[in-house]
Amino acid sequence: MKNQQITPLLFLCLVLTLFLSCKENVPEADLIVLNANIWTGNDAQPKAQAIAISADTIVAIGNDKEIQNYKGASSKVVDAGGKFMTPGFIDSHVHLMMGGNSLLSVELRDAATPEEFSKRISDYAQTLEKGKWIEEGNWDHTLWGGELPNRAWIDANTSDNPVAVYRLDGHMILANSAALKLAGIDKNTADVAGGEIIRDKNGVPTGILKDNAMNAVLDIIPPKTDAEKDKIFRAAMDYFAANGVTSVHDVDSLGTYKIADKLRANTELKTRIYAIHPLYRWQELSTIDHQNDKWVKMGGVKGFVDGSLGSHTAAFHHAYTDKPDNKGFFIHEPQKLYQWISAADKADLQVTVHAIGDSAIHELLDIYERIIDENGQKDRRLRIEHAQHLAKADITRFAQLGVIASVQPYHAIDDGRWAEEVIGAERIKTTYAFKSLLDAKAKLAFGSDWAVAPAEPLLGIYAAVTRQTLDGKNPDGWVPEQKVTVEQALKAYTIDAAYAAFEEDIKGSLEVGKLADFVVINDDITAVESSKIKDLQVLQTYVGGKMVYELKE
Question: Half-sphere exposure (CA, 13 Å, Cβ side) for 391?
Answer without folding.
Answer: 17
